[in-house]
Amino acid sequence: MEANSLPESRIARVRGRIARSHSILAITGAGISGKTRDAPARFATPEGFAADPEAAWRWYDKCRQEVARAEPNVAHLALARLERQGKRVFIVTQNVDDLHERAGSTEVVHIHGSIWRTRCERNGTVEENREVPLAEIPPLCACGSELRPDVVWFGESLLPGPLEQINRHLLAAESNVCLVVGIEATFGHVVQWAHAAKEQGALLVTVNPRRTVIDELADLHLAGPAAEILPLLVP
Question: Could you give all domains of the chain from N- to C-terminal order, each with its CATH number?
Answer without folding.
Answer: 1-34+73-112+157-235 (3.40.50.1220), 36-71+115-151 (3.30.1600.10)
